[in-house]
Design brief:
alpha+beta, globular, about 40% strand, transmembrane, about 140 residues
């Protein structure tokens, strides 16, 4: 397993300083990040819901992208200009209202210029994913 180049505390401070538009409140927390995987939790809010009472696609996509960004930063260090180049999401089942959403991210390949990973999104304590995401990030040449 790769050694993390940033701890959870370092990631949180970096994100508060450099990316406050995505990480300024207390709705998303980083529960773990080890250079290979990360686990993020988005606390339930009615703002997450779409008509029909399910967790909205934009909420799930944003959380998945953020989880991938966190696992990547934990692996490469504070390189804020790493950017998403591709994100594919498959919605598998309804996210339940009233439940936090968990994002389990995992790096599949980390190269010099590209990183590929996957994210499983879970609703509350259910082990069945509500969505599966694959994502590619471009890593700037520093």
């Amino acid at each position: 397993m790769a050694l993390a180049k940033m701890s959870v505390a370092e990631l949180e401070q970096f994100l508060r300083d450099e990316f406050p538009q995505a990480f300024s409140g207390d709705d998303i927390t980083i529960e773990s990040a080890d250079g290979q995987t990360s686990l993020l939790r988005q606390r339930y809010s009615e703002r997450m819901l779409r008509p029909g009472g399910t967790v909205s696609g934009p909420t799930l996509m944003a959380l998945a992208d953020f989880a991938m960004y966190v696992v990547l930063l934990s692996a490469i260090g504070p390189i804020g200009l790493a950017v998403t180049t591709n994100l594919n999401i498959n919605f598998l089942r309804k996210g339940q209202p009233g439940q936090d959403v968990l994002a389990e991210a995992r790096l599949l390949k980390l190269g010099k210029r590209l990183a590929v990973g996957e994210v499983n999104l879970l609703s509350g304590t259910s082990a069945d994913p509500i969505a599966h995401v694959t994502s590619t990030y471009s890593i700037p040449n520093i």
